[in-house]
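Data availability (excerpt). The following record was deposited with the supplementary files.
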Amino acid sequence: MVLESFSAETLARVQFAFTVSFHIIFPAFSIGLASYLAVLNGLYLRTRDESYLKLFNYWKKIFAVAFGMGVVSGIVMSYQFGTNWSVFSDKAGPVVGPLMAYEVLSAFFLEAGFLGIMLFGRSRVGDRLHMFATAMVAFGTLMSATWILSVNSWMQTPAGFSIAENGQFVPEDWWAIVFNPSFPYRLVHMVLAAFLTTALVVGAVGAWHLLRDRADREARTMFSMAMWMLALVTPLQIFAGDMHGINTLEHQPAKVMAMEGHFDSHPEGAPLILFGIPNQEEKRVDYAIEVPKLSSLILKHDLNAPLDGLDTIPDEDEPPVAIVFFSFRVMVALGFAMLGLGIWSLFARYRGTLYDQPWLHRASLLMGPMGFVAVLAGWITTEVGRQPFTVYGLLRTSDSLAPVDAPAVAASLIAFIVVYFAVFGAGTIYILRMMSKPPASPKLGLRDGPIRTAGITPVHQEHPEAPGQD
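Predicted structure:
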């Protein structure tokens, strides 16, 4: 068997990467979608426009499925801390364990507690309590992201601890642990990424239905809202990413060196390598296309600022450069593609042709899944760039592994691959089928709330424009 030729450490890392890759795309979507549902519900209560209620009922069903798949994938992933990474759990458990428990107690319970009211309770509890429940679900998803990112950020920039004689990390200052040096930057970057991911999906669904019927009022509403989010949030995300990069340079310089492809130090300004093929054995980037001194300008805001290279890092402490180098460029390229789409939508909105440009709609449809790709690329950059450590600079990945045999890990990895593609593949297909139907489709129905019919009424035909779109 091919997998048995790999070490237990490599297989365990692949298994965790596989399961967390599936898991991360669902919270990235549900965080943004929960906030979008809260906005739709608030707009409906304020305006009593049935279009917003139809969109709320349409997207809440999709949210329920995505939320369920996120919960299942997260439970499976967490068990690996005990099965494959028990040494890490033992040593970092006094810090990581409470933070993950806080996420369950303060965030997941909040989401789960109000989820049923949000999904089924409008006609039973009234509009105000239903709006409160919807807001609590949205707040819970943001709180969940806060705790999880605090855990991950502490592993990247550990603080507020001491190390006991048995090698355990002992908490000394919980404020320093939770609000470690990279946490604010990671939290902002991830939440904005979740909003952009959701905006791209909503925009793609709206574009799909506009290509079929440009007069579809609900499609116009969701497309307009998504394009506003894209146009306004993408520049903020680029700025937040720049600030995050500067923070990473300060605390994890080797990661930035790998991202930039800087094998050699540059005492008088480092070039920005736009593209190339990293050659870690020869310590160079082959076929490099670069802009002189631009990397120094971006990272230190000075064209002539010196930047250290991987020649200052011991070989055994270098991350896998090629993976980090390419994943970082995928993330950045998609970020600028989102910016371009947002600017295009603003231009079309200014000309009054936002709903009459098929090529804009096709581009939005093509960009629909790109938020997930960007999130995965960013996660790969962050996590692979931390290697060869689980707790940066203190606990090596090779020293975090449980005493497991490679064949056992290989068998569980194969099982995960088969089950994940079957279960989550079916769930994804189901979500796509739901998205393919228009919000006013009688097959979807509106079973929660004062409106019982899902047909398009004459008022929709007479007034196709949704309020506040332009």
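Summary of structural features: The CA atoms of residues 40 and 56 lie 6 Å apart.
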